[in-house]
TrEMBL record:
It is a multi-pass membrane protein. Signal peptide: none annotated. InterPro entries: LeuE-type. The keyword Metal-binding does not apply. This is Leucine efflux protein LeuE. It comes from Streptomyces lutosisoli. The keyword Transferase does not apply. It comes from the Bacteria. Pfam families: LysE.
């Protein structure tokens, strides 16, 4: 179909890939829990646009360039790790302020200030872009399901990318509405909110370390 080989296998692999936890899904869930459905979808839009850029770069062969050029790969890798670390530090600082205060008004003021400064779409977009392993993965995964003899390979990549975005939309939608349910519990229990923010910050640090240790091979 349109130059796509073994579509059922691709879809099965795609489901497993989408369900793997990562910084994108964690950030969307965090935004939805703190700011509601609309902000959650704003962050999700950043993820979808970032993924689209990665897919386009992958189809154009940029991932192969990163794989062949260790210096270029290192620059992208450490830039991405640095950005994830910056986000993690911000989350941990916010969590520390929540732990220190026991007055609800102060805690709400901290949350409101953080929400006013946050740009969910931009952050999610940058988080998606600074993921060199994702670029390499998209190329390695997509190429296996594109018929090399098909006259219009770009169309094959569009079909595969459309399925990937649909799977991402369904998954992130589930996370967004799960996040709004968590929000009610967070508002009632400030300690729970602080604990969740601490855990999110720690996970982002973990993602940064994992990215730093990634190799182009």
């Amino acid at each position: 179909m349109l130059g796509v080989i073994d579509l059922p296998t691709y879809l099965a692999g795609l489901v497993l890939i989408v369900l793997l936890p990562g910084p994108n899904s964690l950030y969307v869930l965090s935004v939805a829990a703190r700011r509601g459905v609309r902000a959650g979808y704003t962050a999700a839009a950043g993820v979808w646009c970032g993924d689209t850029v990665l897919m386009t770069l992958s189809a154009a062969g940029v991932a192969s360039l990163l794989q062949a050029n260790a210096v270029l790969f290192g620059i992208v890798k450490y830039a991405g790790a640095g950005y994830l670390t910056w986000l993690a530090v911000g989350m941990l600082r916010a969590a520390w302020q929540m732990w220190r205060t026991r007055r609800e008004r102060v805690a709400e003021a901290v949350e409101s200030e953080a929400a006013a400064e946050e740009r969910p779409y931009r952050r999610a977009f940058v988080i998606s872009l600074f993921n060199p392993k994702a670029i390499l993965f998209f190329v390695a995964f997509f190429v296996q399901f594109v018929d090399p003899g098909y006259a219009y390979p770009a169309l094959s990549f569009v079909v595969l990318g459309a399925f990937a975005q649909l799977a991402s939309f369904l998954y992130l939608t589930a996370l967004i509405f799960s996040g709004t349910k968590l929000a009610a519990a967070f508002r009632r229990r400030k300690r729970l909110s602080a604990g969740a923010t601490t855990a999110a910050g720690a996970l982002f640090l973990g993602f940064a370390v994992k990215l730093t240790l990634a190799s182009a091979a």
